[in-house]
Amino acid sequence: MTSRTRLSILTLLAPVFLLPTGCGHKQTASAPPTSNILRIPLLSDPTTFDPARVEDGTTIDMLQQMFEGLVRWTPQNTLAPALAKKWDISKDGLTYTFHLRPNVKFQDGNIMTAQDVYYSMRRALDPALKSTVALSYLGDIKGAKEVSTGKTKELTGVKVIDASTVAITITAPKAYWIYTLTYPTAYVLSKAEAKDGVDLTDSADAAGAGTGPFRLTSYQRGSKVTLAANPAYWDGAPKLAGQERPIIKDAGTRHDEYVAGQLDIVDEAKGDLDADEKDTNLKDQIKYWPRAATYYIGLNQKTFPAFADVRVRQALAYATDKKRLQSVVLRGKLDIAQDILPVGIPGFDPQFQGLPYDPAKAKSLLAAAGYPGGKGFPVINITFRESYPDLSKTVDLLRDMWQTNLGVTLQPKVTEWAVMLDQEHRNSLDCYHIRWAADYLDQQDFYSILLRTNAGENHTLYSNPKLDALCDKADVEQNPAVRSGLYRQAARIAADEVPLIPLYYQKDIELVKPYVKNLDDGLMGHLPYTKLTLAK
After folding, report:
1. pTM of the prediction?
2. 271 domain residue, yes or no
3. What is the C-alpha to C-alpha distance for residues 32 and 516, in angstroms, rounded to an integer?
4. How many domains does the chain have?
């Protein structure tokens, strides 16, 4: 993503302090902080503060504390009302009429109305804002494509009925559509704060533009983001006074600061698990959180011409020993991915099998593609984000596997997260190790979004007309069983043609202090910390 977080005005609103670094692995603090401030690190600087532009899970986790939309997820992974108290669906399945909660206030003090709902969606689609994700999630709304291409300023599919009622019409009945409104591109922003074509990242307006339970108070690049509780939150003021999110890129430093009592929740690197499971102070603080997300290797067929040959892609898949990855890198804690669709999404098939580990088959395919023993095959540059030791360890194992089994050289490129996202969206990465986390709990968000020709998140530039036709039919199919069957056929094509290599399903492993209570969580991740308390 090209945007950069500056917010120079916001840094004047509250002082920013660096947290002292802990040393060793001694448990020096187990009492909750007296300030009632939750301390949870960011692994990198936020890529943006604008919901219409965000696309990475780390930043979304923070933004969902500040902003929200018409609907939201529950800890039971069901859809629930949020800014809309209820909605009606027309008999033809095309029009959704949302009835807004009365007297909901933005953090700038303005009352939210249906006009703000219309404005927020139109603004997200405005080409001047240069959102790379808005059309992926709002594109089913009537008139969305015309707005996104600059043909019109009017979003015809969103109608303001009155101040508390808004009707949204989509182009075809789609079972998954209302789920897309949980993604940040549909968050409702204050029209008084969010300007046309102006990224909230570049102004102090983000501090008052949302309706969420927490309000942005300060940000200093490379240091910390600070949020304060919103006492006027429509669903009741949070139990916390606020949140401190220090930006700590090094996993070891994050772990040390947690042990020293300076963080309340922290990600657990697999390399620390063995020691922490034996530590009487820490073992009971290790928590496992299943996620609707898959880590995979993307193979760009346009920038790396050799990947255009399906035999090459298949050879790399057959040369990948996922069980070894599971044992060595993941410490046996995470499950191997046979398909891009993760556990927990309706339609997941536990019997589905991708291409197995078969070095002999891999060598034969690469030789048939014109590279016997890897001779003449170009070096593959594989990009992955900084701050994640497990990604680096995975790539190290892949280097060994592909060199040993195929004679292919893999060159690692550790990259700043925002830079990597920008390169991915310009489709300039040859090969990359990344995850796809569900934007909503539906198969469409994986097969149609990631694999369909010219889909917004198809950065491998893969194309298969048969898969496209199956996805198009499944997207509008109303019978759940028939719909899942169509996506299963698409999954089989993708597994055999290997535009990407699924590796493993995500399960977050975190250290959580014993005094952290009422942490709401679901397959989508931690939910906004409205009920969380820091109790003795």
Report:
1. 0.84
2. no
3. 8
4. 2
